Amino acid sequence: MEYMGVDDKPVVETKALSKNYDIGTVKVEALKDINLTIKRGEFVILSGPSGCGKSTLLSLIGCLDMPSGGDILLDGINVSSLDKDRIADLRNSKIGFVFQMYNLLPELNVFQNVQLPLVYADIARDEREERALKLLKDVNMQHRLSHKPAQLSGGERQRVTIARALINNPTFILADEPTGNLDSKSGGDIMDFFAELNRKSVTIFLVTHNPDVHRYGNRVINMKDGRFI
Ligand code: ADP
Ligand code: MG
């Protein structure tokens, strides 16, 4: 049976979300009262200066860290109601990460790196290879299957990271400064690719401190000192 109404639920919703970091005697209020709703099919850009809390927000929405207060709902499910294993399942099945910290594994080649999430998900080799090849064609990297990450340019590496992020058919993509280390041509190619994905109805939440990429989003949110402005 078709699950009625599932598409009406926001893909991501945060309610009065806050995050503090305590390091010794210093307390950093990295996020304060963040209320965010991302609907299915949106391409939302979060912009703000370095240190304003963008990566912290992405890591909470990506269930990589726990909030200090407030709630996160993914497809209507309150993350705080889940145990660790369910959170890991949710992360692997719903979210595609394009993060700098989520680097490609240096000892694996391009083809193997893209398949890795499917290896963890116990998908058979034929299907893994077929899906990886299709996505690598989509990002124009099918001619570099046996290259190791160190043998690729920054833009090529980022395209492989995007292919890997998409291989589990995630509900949404979280991208943290995906063009941050790229020249403007490679950065433009990556943004065109995100725009193309969004036209195929993939929901995207992308963080940047570069105003040049704002025009790619349907909506731009500005952040300062841990708050939306
Ligand atoms: P942005 O991604 O916008 O540059 P971050 O979310 O990385 O900002 O950081 C927001 C604030 O929280 C900064 O002041 C940063 O120094 C602090 N911060 C980030 N991560 C940690 C951490 N693990 N421990 C302590 N402070 C942190
Ligand atoms: Mg950051």
Counting DSSP H or I runs of 4 or more residues, the number of helices is 6
Instruction: Give the distinct bound molecules.
Output: adenosine-5'-diphosphate, magnesium ion
Which strand-content bin applies to the residues?
A: 25-35%
Class by alpha and beta content = alpha/beta
Oligomer: single chain
Q: How many extended strands?
A: 10
Quick check: average pLDDT?
Answer: 92
Unreliable sequence segments: none
How much helical structure, as a percent, in the residues? 25-40%
Give the H and E element order: EEEHEEHEHHHEHEEE
Shape: globular
Instruction: Report the major sheet.
Output: 6 strands, mixed
Please compute the radius of gyration using only Cα atoms: 18 Å
Order of strands across the biggest sheet?
6-7-8-3-9-10
General description of the model:
- This protein has 229 residues and is α/β, with parallel strands linked by helices.
- The protein is built from six helices and ten strands.
- The protein has helices at residues 54-61, 84-94, 110-120, 125-138, 154-166, 184-199; strands spanning 12-23, 26-38, 43-47, 69-74, 77-78, 95-98, 172-176, 203-208, 219-224, 227-228.
- The strands form two sheets. The chain has a six-stranded mixed β-sheet, with helices on both faces. It has a four-stranded antiparallel β-sheet with strand order 2-1-4-5, with helices on one face.
- Helix 4 crosses helix 5.
- It is globular and about 50 Å long.
- It binds adenosine-5'-diphosphate (ADP) and magnesium ion.
